[in-house]
Amino acid sequence: MAQKKYLIAKLTSCLREDKIQLWKPPYTNEKKEAGKEMKELVQKYSSKLNINENDTENMLEEIRCKAIERGTGNENFKVTGIARLDIYLPRRKSRKIPLETNLFITGKELRSQIAQEHALKENAIKIIINKKQLDLGKTLEDQGVTHNAKVMVLQLEQSDEETKRKVQEEELQCKKEKEINDKMQRTKKGLEILAEREEYLDPDSVPYLDIANQTGRSIEIPPQAKKALVLAMGYHEKGRALMKKKEYEIALPYLLDADKHFCECSTELLNTVDNYAVLQLDIVWCYFRLEQLDCLDDAEKKLSTAHRCFQRCYGENHERLIDIKGSYGREKVLFLRLYLLQGIGHYHSGREKEAAEYIQKASRLYEELSIDPDKVYRLSLLGFSEQEARLALRACHGNVEHAANLITNRREEKAQIRREERAKRRQRLEDINTLKSMGYSKRAAQVALHNTQGNLDQAFKFILDNPELLLEDDDDDPVATDQFQVSQESIDQLMYMGFSRESAEQALKVFKGNIHLASQTLAHYGGALPASLQLSPEGSSPSEESTSSKDSPTESAGSSSSPTDEDMETDAVNEILEDIPEHEEDYLDLTLEEEEQIIHEYLSYIQVPQH
Questions:
Q1: Are 99 and 82 in contact (CB under 8 A)?
Q2: Residue 562 DSSP class
């Protein structure tokens, strides 16, 4: 299949160079049949490209027929508005089928039409056009689908067996469809919750996602940018987890969602992390493993983007990586996959010389990065995991002793980072308790310390400067503010401090008798409560009026009083966390088994230059 694509690409290139248009006379007559001059072309190109004449004739006829088909479709579209779409069916039906339709039908109608015409189960397929999942509720035109668009059909099956009994197959398929759809919804929900969670929440009891650099230390990122990056990286990790299981059909939609969210991040941010480059590689790899590279028009662009991003992240000669990590052996697996995919792209485009260059570069890297199983075993006897062993051996060029030292040092570095984080958490907890002892709520203390980078004095002032935080209450007492009975003794104490009776009484009602809070707030605001804390004439409490301002992003992300909803949210978050690998360099731990097979396959297609 790959060889045929290569030969057709070579023939197409020759036709362009010679400015030959097969769909026009003398190569096509009035009846759309092949002209006599085609025989001369067959002999010419068969000799030039060293291809069997019969094969050359068949491929030229295929090119001619497709050109006529496309030309007829273009004319038809201009006259009738009926578009021609190229439908790329799943691997088990690896054929490109034309489909004619107007562009005003919905995505659901197109999916239904494809399913009916090709005996596919409608709810078991997803459709990708222009690297996006088709929206079932919108028209094709609204989604930017145009005449001659390429439509990729993914079949969401986790088994390739075709011979199961009909009833069992139906039952199993329905169950899988529901599982896949439910999982995608849970992933979306879990990521949205995690992306909205604030860092001031207690990480020991409420998990949230943090972004770290290549040394494992947290990166300070503006909230809005961090939300987009968390969503992008979360979808990417989910897609990568599925890729490890070879479930490329299910992985691809997650990767495309990740790409969409990465595009919301600033260029400056993307230049500091290599995640975006790795994602581009993963998307192209998925299309390739699905045997649908033809559907990815910008595969070459994505690979070039990945290469540029790696250079900006790692340095032109990997100098940044060497400064940070001491070597760049682990990252070479990314370049191996990059060169391999670039070589495959060149081969499918008929550029044999470039294909040979890149595939041989990938082959040389494979030989360099192949790991001796005995060395992995020797490191495992020292108590190291296989993953740690592979990564360290690649970083140390196969030297077992150096690899053992590297793993030990890295473990100590990570342990030191954890100790520093624990110390920060302990200090933070002490500061929270200090503010709580002054009468402020736990959440108010968390928010204030987060916004003042842990400065206790500034946090105290921050709470007073943000009156809505003064309304935060850890107490579940349902008594309304205006109904709270203030003691005369408390009023007298505040009046003795110099505050008016009216202000004293109102402050004590708002703070439900907390003299410390009432006096601090009145003193900070010159003897009177700020407008946002004052009771309304109708008697409703300020806490009721400011409910919307009190809602935290976490609460708006879907928290509910229903235990069932809370359990579902917890499950969704835990499912996301399960797919996030413990080792920060998990994405570099490729076994290279797939790559080895593909390198050998494509090396057999190309003529390696003799030296």
A1: no
A2: -
Rounded to the nearest integer, the mean pLDDT of the chain is 80
Q: pLDDT digit string (tens) for 1-17?
A: 678 888 888 889 889 88
β-partners of residue 85 are: 99
pTM attached to this predicted model: 0.68
Using CA atoms in the order 219, 222, 225, 227, what is the torsion angle rounded to 10 degrees?
Answer: 80
> With DSSP H G I counted as helix, E B as strand and the rest as coil, what are the percentages for the chain, rounded to 5?
65, 5, 30
494-503: long-range contacts (C-beta < 8 A, 24 or more apart)? 494/518, 494/519, 494/522, 498/527, 499/527, 500/527, 503/527, 503/528, 503/529
Q: How far from 488 is each of 508, 518, 529, CA to CA, in Å? A: 11, 14, 19
Peptide bond into 26 cis (omega under 30): yes
The pLDDT tens digits for 427-440 are 888 998 898 888 78
Mode of pairing for the β-strands spanning 132-133 and 96-101:
unpaired
Name the 3-class secondary structure at 307.
helix
| Rounded Cα gap, residues 360 and 355, in angstroms | 8
According to DSSP, the β-strands at 96-101 and 125-129 are unpaired
Q: Return the sign of the alpha-carbon dihedral for residues 69, 70, 75, 77.
A: positive
Q: What is the dihedral of CA 240, 242, 248, 250, to 10 degrees?
A: -120
Neighbours of 334 (CB within 10 A): 21
Owner of token pair 């966390």: 577
d(CA 592, CA 333): 8
The tally of CA atoms less than 13 A away on the side-chain side of residue 404 is 11
| β-pairing verdict for 83-88 and 96-101 | antiparallel
Burial 85-102, CB ≥16 within 10 A → b, else e: bbbbbbeeeeeeeeeebe
Q: How far apart are CA 258 and CA 346, in angstroms?
A: 27
Spell out a b/e string for 125-159, using b for 16 or more CB atoms within 10 Å of the CB, else e: bbbbbbbbbbeeeebbeebebebebbbbbbbbbee
Query: Amino acid letter at 389?
Result: A
Range with the largest mean pLDDT of 95-99, 190-194, 226-230, 410-414: 410-414
Nearest partner of 326 among 421, 413, 385, 415, judged by Cα? 413
For residue 216, pLDDT beyond 80: no
Question: Starting at the edge strand that comes first in sequence, how are the strands of the sheet with 96-101 ordered?
Answer: 96-101, 83-88, 150-155, 125-129, 132-133
**304: confidence class by pLDDT, cuts 50, 70, 90:** very high
Question: What pLDDT, on a 0 to 100 scale, did the predictor assign at position 385?
Answer: 93
Query: Rounded to whole angstroms, what are the CA distances from 66 to 82, 84, 258, 413, 577?
Result: 18, 12, 35, 60, 48
Distance from C-alpha of 309 to C-alpha of 302, rounded to nearest angstrom: 10
Fill in the DSSP letter of residue 397. T
Separation CA 216–CA 419 (nearest Å): 13
